Amino acid sequence: MIYSFKGHIPVIHPSSFVHPLAAVTGNVIIGKDCYIGPGAAIRGDWGEIILEDGVNVQENCTVHMFPGKSIRFRESAHIGHGAVIHGANLGRNCLIGMNSVIMDDAVIGDECIVGAMAFVKAETVIPSRSLVVGNPAKIIKEVSDEMIAWKTAGTKLYQQLPADCYESLREVEPLREIPKDRPQQEDFYKTLQEFKGG
């Protein structure tokens, strides 16, 4: 669902995919190869929201801000299921964990990893390459080259997902029994431990 608001119409690059069950409203700009999952709400009614190329905003995320603000998610930012970003700016190639909350005027640096269910207070500035966890969120260590390589590999899957959705996602009636020739699921991604060879 794409909505205009007070004359602002979202601008979405044709290579990006916005699920029909997501809502994108008003002053929103979405770059190339972005994925917006079902249940996501990106509300540019009170301010501008810019998603640079390769950003993904997964299922049931909320992106909003106080009036008069402008926020930007830099290239390849990765926002996990159920996260809330309220008036915060996200750095290049960062990972925001599932069900985390990033509050107003916070700045998440490039290549940071914010753990699942973390709470980042308003106006917090997280330096690049920080691993952040907890409520309130605290930096616990620097993100290693291995961790960021694993994160980048995961984000590339989401950057491929828009093309895959355009090619194969269809509304269908369910099957009533399991077919004998049911396709096998591909195994194309490793957990961090597997990625590290652990």
From TrEMBL:
One Pfam assignment: Hexapep
Entry superkingdom: Bacteria
Protein name as it appears in the record: Phenylacetic acid degradation protein
Organism: Dokdonia pacifica
